[in-house]
Design brief:
It is a single chain. By secondary structure, the chain is an alpha/beta fold. It folds into two domains: 1-77, no CATH class; 97-301 and 377-386, L-arginine/glycine Amidinotransferase, Chain A (5-stranded Propeller), CATH 3.75.10. 20% of the residues lie in helices and 20% in strands. The chain contains eight helices and 20 strands. Helix 7 links the parallel strand 18 (321-325) and strand 19. The termini are far apart. 34% of the residues are buried.
């Protein structure tokens, strides 16, 4: 180690602002005759000291042949190694962890679902200030309960739906390493550019990253129930072959169900695991065989197509509450849309009450313009929010 010997009269100031003749200044900017600037200051003549001494700040000073030297932590004699965090990533963290994206690149120019096609003229044009406020309301609520990462938006990116992180991929929480993610292979053309964004993000976090070999649009299509058991939707945006590949590669069981309703084009529109044992299912949309398969692994709570159109399944579970989108205060009482919204809210509240859960509603009307609801905006990085079992 290189040490610097003082050229003054043996007086030294460390980490201070010394001024005057013969003073030495360390980590400072000395001014005047006889001043010097140094990163490490040593005295040429000091009283004998032990071979090594640890001062009150924990810095170890050892006697060198021509002065004193400060050793970095790895070279400090007799010190124990630093403690290491028990979590290498948010999936291993024992609190709810999620991924969201602020709507920097949000747009509605390309109509890539039936809801958007039905909107004419400027009906799809978002109010960006209102969209930001609505997003932050959800973000603040979730971040109060756990850890929320924000997916960076590449500058100038033409990614109108990047905010909908539930489609970015799925973290496979059943694997022992809790360090594996499958990134989406999009069917929707304006979303294909999201794949490299997801790959870069998760690789930078140290995850083992895989891109689905067949069409797949994230955890919105693949609902984790518990252990290695999942329900996967195919037929509109995702391929059955994706789940067969996952079963073989990742030791998981996927109950495959065909999606047939164009307006409910992702599985989170018709299936919502509200607890590890109970799942909301739109029983009108699936075959008897599919319902029987699901019934073997979860308690099915039936919901209707109309309730799904209103977003009953597009919910997110937190430890003691369920988050759902409702713009009922924007609707005129007595209208058909108002009555459907009331029906959906009352049904969800009754289900939640039976499971000792609360409901929190958020107005996300600006995101309805792209055919999206609350669950679309949230990707689970772990399933810690399901660990707390509550019963009435």
């Amino acid at each position: 180690m290189k040490t610097l010997k003082s050229k003054n009269k043996g007086r030294i100031l460390g980490n201070g602002n010394g001024n005057g003749n013969g003073h030495h200044k360390a980590n400072g900017n000395g001014n005047g005759n006889g001043h010097a600037k140094a990163v490490t200051a040593t005295a040429a003549r000091l009283s004998p000291i032990p071979t090594s001494v640890e001062n009150s700040t924990g810095v170890v000073i050892v006697e060198a042949s021509r002065g004193l030297a400060v050793l970095p932590g790895a070279q400090r004699p007799g010190l124990e190694s630093k403690a290491v965090s028990p979590w290498l990533n948010p999936t291993q963290f024992d609190r709810p962890s999620f991924l969201m994206n602020f709507p920097f690149s949000y747009a509605t120019g390309f109509a890539n679902n039936p809801w958007m096609v039905d909107m004419k003229g400027d009906q799809r044009q978002p109010d960006f200030v209102r969209a930001a406020v609505q997003f932050l309301a959800v973000y603040q609520n979730i971040s109060a309960e756990g850890l929320v990462y924000l997916l960076p938006t590449p500058r100038g990116a033409d990614l109108q739906d990047l905010i909908y992180t539930a489609n970015l991929g799925i973290v496979l929480g059943h694997l022992p390493d809790k360090n594996t993610v499958v990134i989406s292979n999009y069917t929707s053309k304006p979303r294909c550019g999201e794949t490299p964004v997801g790959v870069r993000f998760f690789e930078s976090m140290g995850y083992e990253v895989h891109v689905a070999p067949a069409k797949f649009e994230g955890e919105a299509e693949l609902k984790h129930l518990y252990d290695n058991i999942y329900v996967g939707g195919y037929g509109i945006r995702s391929d059955r072959a994706t789940y067969e590949w996952m079963e073989e590669k990742f030791n998981m069981r996927v109950i495959k169900v065909r999606e047939v309703e164009p307006y409910l084009y992702h599985l989170d529109c018709s299936i919502f695991p509200i607890t590890r044992q109970n799942t909301l299912v739109c029983t009108e949309l699936f075959s008897r065989k599919e319902l029987a398969e699901m019934g073997k692994v979860t308690n099915i709570i039936p919901v209707t197509v109309d309730e799904c159109f209103s977003g009953i399944c597009n919910s997110v579970r937190l430890p003691n509450q369920v988050l759902n989108s409702s713009h009922i205060h924007d609707l005129k009482a007595g209208t058909e849309d108002y009555n459907f919204e009331v029906q959906k809210n009352r049904k969800l509240e009754d289900i939640a009450a039976n499971l000792a859960l609360e409901i929190s509603y958020f107005n996300l009307s600006e995101f309805h313009k792209s055919g999206a609801l609350l669950s679309c905006m949230v990707m689970h990085l772990n399933r810690s929010c399901y660990k707390i079992a509550l019963t009435a």
